[in-house]
């Protein structure tokens, strides 16, 4: 079977809700990372066969195929088509997998996988809420209601269920969250993100600046401060401090074939080693990365000890904690530069964002194999394993 290679991976620094990226249209966020891919790599961008863009809240400024609009707003040729997809939080990780499948099938040679999400401008849940407000119903049909009576498929409920199923405590969640901030702060201070972040011009009260540091990181985070944040449910475990931060951002990964490497003189940074996606229990929902990882490792003929680094999206602290307990993975290899609790989770943009971080971390540490996974609405999960080259 033909191989698929990653040539480059970039992202914007995350912006808090209502923060530094709030004044930037999501289409322009996408255009910024598309431009960076063209500028950082010496090839004719007319060779890009397709752009696949993950976006969860496809409403308002993120409608009308936001990926195509970002192409039109960028320096890429207008001749490049684009499609926007939704696999919930795994949308742009799925864009990587679709791009790799296109390349591996031989139908395309150069595909730009990407993600765009402005959670400030198109708030989470706003698309569903609009139709409910207008009396047009919600996503649950009669048959879906019959199958899952009274269930609203809440990620918060799923996170609470994982805490109890895996014997976690609120202290476990808060201690994990503190470590996420510490690692993210250290990554910024050491320059670990410099090669993956695309600076974005923003307007601030002080004037025009370049946004290039993830805005959600609490450099002075303390266990006392995190523990003092009120839980969402009375007597529950999940709080805003041990869950991912609402975030604005965009990201992109250039995926090519072996022929494209030769034709355009490109140097691959990694090879796609395994592509897996699974579905499971939509009620507990966030647990599926555990079982998807089992399947991916089995299909790849590997075990967890073969993996040098892993990115497990920190949608909620219980998820990576349960993942480590289930797989036997080491915290020393997990989200080594912090995760979404500190850096933010821009929904549809998180998949390609995590890949940029994973690839750069592998290079910095001399690791060979990296694994990325995340929980997704509907009880789904993607797993992508890469092999660093060079």
How many E strands?
Answer: 12
Kindly, what is the distance between the CA atoms of the first and last residues, rounded to a whole number of angstroms?
A: 22 Å
Biggest β-sheet strands, sense, barrel:
10 strands, mixed
Oligomer: single chain
Instruction: Tell me what portion of residues adopts beta-strand conformation.
Output: 15-25%
Note the run of SSEs as H and E. Answer: EEHEHEHEHHHHEEHEHEHEHHHEE
Helix content: 25-40%
Overall geometry: globular
Q: What is the rounded Rg?
A: 20 Å
Low-confidence stretches: none
Family: Belongs to the thiolase-like superfamily. Thiolase family.
Domain Thiolase C-terminal: 267-388
GO molecular function: acetyl-CoA C-acyltransferase activity
Domain Thiolase N-terminal: 5-259
Descriptive overview:
Helices cover 36% and strands 21% of the residues. It has helices at 26-40, 66-73, 91-105, 126-133, 142-147, 155-165, 170-190, 223-227, 258-264, 288-300, 318-327, 340-343, 350-365, and strands at 4-11, 15-16, 50-54, 82-85, 110-118, 200-204, 207-211, 247-257, 270-279, 309-312, 369-376, 380-388. Strands 1, 2, 3, 4, 5, 8, 9, 10, 11 and 12 form a ten-stranded mixed beta sheet that branches. The two termini are 22 Å apart. The mean pLDDT is 96.
